[in-house]
Design a protein that fits this description.
With about 900 residues, the protein is α+β, with helices and mostly antiparallel strands. Among the domains are: about 475-560, no CATH class; about 785-875. About 45% of the residues lie in helices and about 20% in strands. The protein is built from 29 helices and 28 strands.
């Protein structure tokens, strides 16, 4: 297939590494990160990489390893580096010669004199501490039974925290491993073991050599995991979890969705699954939701373990994430990005395909509605921020790999692919994907290659589309501009605007325009046309002569990625006739239009909450109810930030009563749990807190409501948050009952959230201690519970200190720590003084890391938004 050529400016923006291929190499920077330039220079010299790995695991705090690394070298005139983080090297042999390691704790430098043009073999023996922050080879001691569990996590570039490696995606290699473990451990890796031998006090696990993989897609997990197996499908499936949480796992659900997904993707991609078996592991302390390691996928316990039967929403979330990670087995593992600037495409494609598979291969046929309500709305929010960025952005080094991993990366990218599928046609899009996977399997590819495959399948030029959608940031707004005469539409124009003048790009897009009339049966669709629009104005003559509508929705069925601004008549219809909208997706979109009005300070928050109180209790769509109730939680957050007022007390009481009444009257357990969860999130009056305490001790029984261990902890956290009398004693008792890891996490959250100056000071000291022995997962939990919105005055005690030390913390802590710190620990109080303080901090700290600087800018923008929402409500 002829390679598709994007305009040269685009190629330069995204392909900087290629230019470096021929540049004279400079000494590699002495730091923990690998630059794109250095990676490209190394990839130009190195090929045909094979790893033979030996690990000795004892369950203790450190492990030992031996790596034999073989590779072809085209140019032996210069030194070569091998990545290895914070290890103690006991032996280094290069091409049969023992050499003294030239090692700076980040990478080993092999002298040119020790290398040869052609095949080289390097053997490194070393020891290293296990990681405790979720990267590298992570180790966790189960507090319930003292068992030790390990698992690997390498994305974006942490394989060198476990073994010596060329830690970049475009140096794919094969891996053959041998692992010695305690006798009761099991090991999962990319392949199934060929033998397990008894050795003194333990076992030796041997695995065959893998197919070619990028380092971050390889993995090895070991511990006394409980294992479930299912061989009913085309590929053998296994599921792993810690022994102490095994009762919380529902293997039947996992295997059902996994089997359905493998069948779906085999058919859709037209390429059989390539990695022979399918292991999935629930692991503790995980940094993210899940990770697509080839044939040994890891999932966060905290997200997918539940102490009672899963709700429908939890099952859908599980199915969606299984499908997302499964899509990566083809798009990401089989064909892999060349450098980390391609990470967005990897994630966007998996988000798109994961939703498609969930909607077509499981019972969750409304998966696109869920995608609209969650991921897509997050993308709209991100794209309207001052920190917005193009979908495709440069990544100078591995330090920046996750700078832009956000809802734009996942959900806007997925939305653009969904839109492109509408633009090209479903079968053309599928054929282009198939051709791409066939052509680049076991290789690395670029965005250019992917777009080229789609363009060839469609036989059209996609350079303009690519430039508009992938290289230009920002979200457009579309609105209907129409006139009626004699009860009929006389003219209709779809208008597109770029609200941010600094981001003026207008885009081509295919959408449906729906016209609706109010009648005896509610709000019914009277006319629908599909159009491709571009530019500032697109006439839609097909709508001329249609009945004059009561409501126009210019992105009917959510084909496009654009914010919709309803015309005045349509907005009024939406506000007053939500209960008459029969289509749940349209109803979701109209609710979103009202919420956009709140966030843009055009619809007063109190008016929105009136609509909630009038309509939410009657909502029969489970997915949409969840969306509405999440916005209720956000509304209460705004009210808490704004301080105490008579209105806040009144509406909070109304929301409490609404949620508890719906909890008691719900006939469906999924709805009941959703409503009770909302009650927990809004309860703050003395009466509501007393009611929660009564439910906790069994004095108040709500028919049908199961007060599980998870619910008990949620109640205890709420009671402690508002210093309910005796709440600290309830916490102490529950800690004794539940000594599990999740119980410890919940206890920390409940303790940290107490509105007491001493508690805040002690936990701030723990969070600020970068050498604390507390596992990072628990530090992260503490950060998220420190300063709830209504505890503004307590937050103010340390606010100046946190801002003053932000630069030093950012420099010392690193990106894994700073992501939750930036989200939770930068103070904002919805006041002009807070805004000024943030402005001063931004001016004083010009050299923050990209991620932390963005958190500062986002906090400032959201603080400004809160002030505007407060003013709009006050003016009303």
């Amino acid at each position: 297939m002829k390679k598709y050529l994007i305009a040269s400016a685009i190629a330069l923006a995204f392909g900087g590494a290629h230019a470096a291929d021929t540049a004279a190499p400079a000494p590699r920077a002495e730091n923990a990160y690998l630059s794109q330039v250095d990676a490209a220079a190394r990839a130009a010299r190195v090929s045909n990489v094979d790893y033979t790995l030996e690990f000795a695991l004892t369950g203790k705090e450190s492990f030992s390893g031996k790596t034999t690394l073989s590779f072809d070298l085209s140019d032996a005139a210069q030194a070569l580096t091998i990545d290895l983080d914070k290890a103690n090297i006991s032996s280094l042999t290069v091409n049969g010669k023992t050499v003294a390691p030239q090692y700076n704790q980040w990478f080993i430098t092999l002298a040119a004199a020790d290398l040869v043009a052609g095949r080289n073999t390097v053997t490194i023996e070393y020891t290293r501490l296990h990681s405790t922050n979720g990267e590298g080879l992570h180790r966790m001691v189960d507090p319930v039974d003292g068992r030790v569990y390990t698992y690997s996590h390498f994305e974006p570039a942490a394989a060198h925290q476990m073994f010596p490696v060329f830690d970049q995606p475009d140096l794919k290699g094969t891996y053959q491993i041998t692992v010695t473990t305690p006798a009761d451990w099991v090991v999962s890796s990319t392949k199934r073991e060929t033998s397990v031998q008894d050795i003194d006090g333990g076992k030796r696990w041997s695995f065959p050599r893998t197919k070619k993989l990028s380092p971050y897609n390889f993995s090895m997990h070991a511990g006394p995991y409980k294992v479930w197996e299912d061989n009913s499908g085309k590929y053998p499936m296994r599921l792993f979890a810690r022994q102490s949480v095994a009762s919380q796992v529902s293997p039947a659900d996992w295997f059902k969705y996994t089997k359905a997904g493998l069948a779906f993707f085999d058919q859709y991609f037209g390429i059989p699954y390539q990695f022979e078996k399918y292991d999935q592991l629930l692991v503790p302390d995980f940094l993210y939701g899940a990770m697509e390691n080839a044939a040994a996928i890891t999932f966060a316990e905290g997200r997918f373990l539940h102490k009672e039967e899963m709700t429908s929403a939890q099952k859908q979330s599980l199915a969606g994430v299984i499908m997302h990670e499964m899509a990566h087995q083809w798009f990401g593992d089989l064909v892999t990005m060349k450098w980390w600037n391609g990470l967005w495409l990897n994630e966007s494609f998996a988000s798109f395909m994961g939703t498609l598979a969930t909607s077509e291969a499981t019972e969750f046929t409304n998966a696109w509605q869920s995608f609209y309500s969650s991921g897509k709305q997050e993308a709209y929010v991100q794209d309207a921020r001052v920190t917005t960025h193009a979908v495709e952005t440069p990544v100078p080094s591995t330090a920046n790999a996750f700078d832009n991993i956000d809802a734009i990366t996942y959900s806007k990218g997925a939305s653009t692919l969904k839109q492109l599928r509408h633009l090209l046609g479903e079968e053309v899009f599928r054929q282009g994907v198939h051709n791409y996977l066939i052509k680049y399997q076991y290789r690395n590819a670029t965005l250019d290659d992917f777009i080229g495959s789609l363009a060839a399948a469609a036989n059209r030029d996609l350079s303009g589309w690519t430039q508009e959608w992938l290289y230009q940031p920002g979200v457009n707004t579309i609105t209907a501009d129409y006139s009626c005469a004699g009860g009929k539409v006389s003219s209709f124009t779809l208008r597109q605007s770029a609200p941010n003048p600094e981001l003026p790009t207008l885009r081509e897009q295919r959408v449906q325009v729906g016209l609706f009339k109010l009648g005896a049966d509610g709000l019914a669709l009277s006319k629908n046309v599909a159009i491709t629009y571009k530019g500032a104005a697109t006439a839609v003559p097909e709508l001329n002569g249609a009945a004059c509508p009561d409501l126009v929705y210019p992105n009917y069925q959510d084909w496009g990625f654009a914010k919709v601004r309803l015309d005045k008549k349509s907005f009024a219809t939406a506000q007053h006739s939500l209960s008459k909208v029969n289509d749940p997706l349209l109803r979701s979109m109209l609710w979103q239009s009202l919420w956009d009005g709140v966030r843009d300070a055009q619809l007063p928050l109190n008016e929105y909450l009136k609509t909630v109180l009038a309509n939410a209790p009657a909502e029969k769509d489970y997915t949409l109810l969840g969306d509405i109730l999440e916005k209720v939680k956000a509304s209460v957050g705004y009210l808490n930030l704004m301080g105490d007022s008579a209105y806040k007390k009144q509406v909070t009481l109304q929301l409490e009563q609404m949620a508890f009444k719906a909890t008691k009257s719900a006939s469906d357990k999924n709805f009941q749990r959703r409503w009770f969860s909302t009650y927990l999130q809004v309860a703050s009056s003395p009466a509501a807190l007393k009611q929660l305490a009564a439910i906790l001790d069994g004095k108040l029984v709500v028919p049908g409501l199961n007060v599980s261990q998870d619910v008990r902890w949620d109640i205890i956290k709420r009671l402690n948050r508002y210093a309910y009398p005796g709440a600290d004693a309830l916490l102490a008792v529950e800690q004794q009952k539940d000594k599990s890891d999740s119980g410890q996490q919940a206890a920390i959250a409940a303790a940290v959230i107490r509105p007491e100056p001493k508690v805040k000071a002690e936990w701030l000291a723990t969070i600020s201690d970068l050498k604390t022995t507390l596992p990072f997962s628990k530090v992260r939990t503490a950060m998220g519970s420190m300063y709830p919105e209504e505890q503004r005055s307590l937050g103010e005690v340390s606010a100046a200190q946190r801002l003053a030390t932000l630069g030093d913390v950012d420099k010392a802590a690193g990106p894994v720590y700073m992501r939750p710190y930036g989200a939770s620990m930068i103070p904002a109080t919805c006041t002009p003084a807070s805004l000024q303080r943030l402005d001063e901090t931004i001016a004083k700290l010009p050299n923050l890391s990209t991620g932390t600087h963005r958190w500062l800018l986002v906090t400032r923008q959201e603080d400004q938004r809160c002030i505007a929402i407060k003013q709009a409500m006050t003016a009303h």
